[in-house]
Specification:
By secondary structure, the protein is of the alpha/beta class. It contains 11 helices and 8 strands. Bound molecules: phosphoenolpyruvate. The site of phosphoenolpyruvate has 14 residues, from strand 8.
Amino acid sequence: MRKPFIAGNWKMNTTAESSVALVNALKAAVKDVTTVDIAVVPPFVYLAAVAKAAAGSNIAVGAQDVYFEGNGAFTGEISCDMLKDVGCKYVIIGHSERRHVIGEKDDLINKKVLAALKAGLKPILCVGELLAEREAGKTAAVVTEQTTRCLAGVAADQLLNVTIAYEPVWAIGTGRNATPDQAQEVHVMIRKLVAKLYSQELADKLRIQYGGSAKPANAAELIGQKDVDGLLVGGASLKADDFAAMIKAAQ
Ligand code: PEP
């Protein structure tokens, strides 16, 4: 059985005060939840304060990105050890906004995945197609290529520290979620690919989240799909009540 995993990506939102208030409100709302893994993913500058507020609770903390080098002259970048130092367990890597706004490619994303695993962080590796790619019937090809390239060099005994997040780019922040059937179809495809790249046993254990306009109204139906093991939530994770309702839908 795969334990559901719900993570909230706060993106470039919140303030020093509101980030701590948000995690405190969430803590109170989900304190009795034991059957779902929960993470919040604040901006870098609020990680330490949010991790301190979440300490000892059932809420883990993740970062929105990381750099693959250990230390040195990489102005503006943040290393895996720095993230661990401030209390991070997870790190989102290859989010569509980093791919398509900042311009990250699969080879850079792969280096980040390998560095995170080596450092003992758990990557949430995002993959997903653009609308034009879906309309051209290329979803499977795009997701296969991204997943294969970004997992290159990940050893079998490291794989289960990775969560894959299937996030169709056309669904992120648009209010237009993939239908449960569309999500399930791609999740099955990813699981079959992982079985081919690794083994059926690992594929059966690997968690695959869905992300893209997930909200309280559609969470239960999405998570109800056999191969949807949780959600990566953007906008709806900024309201403690909404995010808590989605976590409870996964129980
Ligand atoms: C995301 O940021 O990963 C995401 C899925 O955003 P939203 O839920 O706002 O579509």
